[in-house]
Fold this protein.
Amino acid sequence: MRREFLSNIDLEKWADLNDVQRDGVYIHSAEDGKGKRIVVSSRPDSLQQNKPLLTIPQYLILSLETVWIYAKSDRQLEEVLNAVGDYSQTARGAILIFLLLQVTHNALAGPDKVAVSTPWTQYVKFVPREDRLPTFWTEGERALATGTSLEPALDSKLRSLEREFVHLRDSTSSIGWCQRRWWNAGADGLTFDDWKGVDSMYRSRALDLPGTGHAMVPYIDMANHASGDDTVALYDTDVDGNAILVLREGKTLRMDDEVTITYGDDKGACEMLFSYGFIEDSMTSAREIFLDLEIPGGDPLKLAKKSIAKSPPGFKLFESGAATDWHGDFVWLVCVNEEDGLDFRILQTVDGERELKMFWKDKEISRESDFRDLLKDEQLWDVFQLRAIATLQGRVEQQLLALETVKASKSPMHEFQKGGYPYFHTMKLREFEEKLMLQAYEDFEHKKNELLASQVVQEYLALANKEQELPAEDDFT
């Protein structure tokens, strides 16, 4: 659908009209191509009077609750929210539907308009299209991520967005105005790119606002990211429920300084690139990386394990001082088997339903995260650890080989994209992740050697070798 964009001057007028209080700051478009930013226009009074730099009225905060309040006076919004079912009961789902209707309202003219006009109907005209997000990269640009943790994350995200778009179409195709304005409007109708557009608005701008949860806050969402000591301001909620932006303790501002917030100091390089479209200049390492894991095809409990697992199917590698560490509840499901004492049973609930349950030596495991604690109490804990470390080291080696294969291939597609924005940031990601995984591989090797020296492990391996050497018994049945 067609989108209209308005100037920063119009944004300041919108802020005046909606009682957005600014104390010496304004929106400025950066010359370096990094979009809009909040800049100091004069020495803020807050340095003397302890006033917020920005105060956003509560009614402008876009949250799950706010969307459903709007729906009470907007029949078409309510129709779509109800049509998509449980999807609209989440903050992200409800907000994406709301944003889509604002974009639709702006794209149509005269009697064709849908949805009730709100302050957000105008505000979305100030939100730039997030073309730098990987979900908008071309096929050639996405190929640059091959071998990095961004590749599966991006593939999964695009599949998820496509499922959501199909669900939206199937759920609303029987609603008259949706059929006319979205699905039967040809080139002017709703497209998958439009759905990716509202997702990018939310994904790159949503905040975890104290007292509200996941929400979008106009004007404050124009602030750029800076981590650590470079973060200038913090967002919060005042006693009246308004969103505020306050100067960090000890920080001072001068004319033309940029007011920055943090999107999350602990976010890894991949998550930054995935969610915001960049890796900040001050970042010198990947910080963390998530690698997926497969349960071996020959595991007789594979289907049961996959059904019972609630944790992500993989593990997270992360920096821990000068070394690396890992976390992943799913790993223990991969490494422990029926002969160790793991079992699954289908039990009947009080409601008469049948439910799959996991047991460890006849003790029910109600939470997947408890499994590791039970294993730690076992005599064979060192054996279980060795299996896990060997599995993780093998997966890291596999990922390193994937990185190296792409590097050695010198694909013409990569050469074609060389020098572009995606190229710069994916090359940075590749370098960071390779460094982290090489360190992790070395750390796993040290840990593996320690475990192999364990008396418990040596006795276990000796027994296993002895059993393999025994001749098979003749079967005379």
